[in-house]
Design goal:
globular, 58 residues, mainly alpha
Length: 58
């Protein structure tokens, strides 16, 4: 469960090296008119990782 959360945060951190954070923040802003920050970016990836970790359990 928490392994997925950690993996999600690691993916977000590595993605930020390549500008993925700016891309995701801009995309969320255009599709939903919500203005998120880098904290929202990391929270989004943490939740995605957590859900992936929960669904990956057998």
């Amino acid at each position: 469960m928490f392994g997925g959360l950690i993996v999600g945060l690691l993916v977000a951190w590595i993605g930020s090296w390549f500008g993925l954070d700016r891309l995701i923040i801009q995309g969320v802003m255009e599709f939903t008119a919500l203005n998120i920050t880098s904290a929202g970016y990391y929270t989004l990836f943490a939740f995605i990782g957590l859900i992936g970790g929960l669904l990956g359990r057998h």
